[in-house]
């Protein structure tokens, strides 16, 4: 009787592990906290027209940002998977440094950065704890770009224009960037789990500014080069189908 009970227990454990296993064709969706921490640096603000000049000592830093992240993982087999990650576009604030430090906040923008990753999960598919590594790419673009009155005034002074006689708009370049990813997933039961990952994105952009008169006549263009290089952490609750 004792041997029979042990055998049944072993079969039950194997059946449970098989039920929890991540196999080819499985989908795992997740939702949770995305945190962007830019490791930023910048080049000085440069007037490119009508005459090229550099605002010596000027710079900018980018704030951290948090948002809701959404993800979906498809398992090609028990180890290899493809993941798509998308966050509600976070809002970043750009603050002046150096000679622009007195201006304070220069502007803000929302960043869109949907990401696709190829991932490899360690341990077997029926293991509850599975570390993983990933490599992929993201396409980044920006919306809702706003410049503060402080920056508007600083640019007007640089152009020797009277206050409120000019207006400046900005555009940030879009770009592809690689994504390096690592983390760990824990399966609580057949369906529910948690996942934590850290990604590094070597990312840069160029801000192009156009200054016009109150009548809309362009009188100057400027640019600033920014390196964002964010470290992105993602903590999510997951559900497996």
TrEMBL record:
One of its GO terms (cellular component) is cell outer membrane. InterPro entries: OMP/PagP_B-barrel (IPR011250), OMPW (IPR005618). GO terms for biological process: transmembrane transport. It comes from Variovorax paradoxus. Keywords: Signal. Residues 1-21 form the signal peptide. It is found in: Cell outer membrane. It comes from the Bacteria. This is Outer membrane protein. Coiled coil: none annotated. PANTHER family: OUTER MEMBRANE PROTEIN W, PTHR36920.
């Amino acid at each position: 009787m004792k041997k029979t009970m042990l055998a049944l227990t072993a079969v039950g454990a194997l059946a449970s592990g098989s039920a929890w296993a991540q196999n080819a064709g499985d989908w795992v969706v997740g939702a949770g906290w995305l945190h962007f921490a830019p490791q930023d640096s910048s080049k000085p603000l440069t007037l490119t027209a009508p005459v090229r000049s550099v605002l010596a000592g000027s710079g900018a830093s980018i704030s951290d940002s948090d948002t809701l992240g959404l993800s979906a993982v498809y398992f090609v087999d028990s180890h290899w998977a493809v993941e798509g990650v998308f966050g509600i576009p976070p809002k970043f604030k750009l603050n002046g440094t150096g000679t622009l430090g007195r201006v304070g906040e220069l502007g803000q923008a929302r960043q869109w950065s949907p990401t696709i990753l190829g991932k490899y999960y360690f341990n077997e598919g029926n293991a509850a704890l599975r570390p993983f590594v990933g490599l992929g790419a993201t396409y980044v673009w920006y919306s809702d770009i706003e410049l503060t009155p402080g920056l508007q005034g600083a640019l007007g002074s640089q152009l020797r224009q009277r206050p409120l006689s000019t207006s400046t708009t900005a555009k940030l370049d879009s770009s592809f960037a690689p994504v390096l990813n690592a983390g760990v997933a824990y399966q609580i039961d057949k369906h529910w789990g948690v996942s934590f990952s850290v990604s590094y994105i070597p990312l840069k952009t160029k801000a192009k500014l156009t200054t016009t008169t109150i009548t809309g006549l362009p009188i100057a263009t400027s640019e600033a080069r920014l390196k964002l290089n964010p470290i992105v952490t993602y903590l999510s609750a997951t559900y497996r189908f």
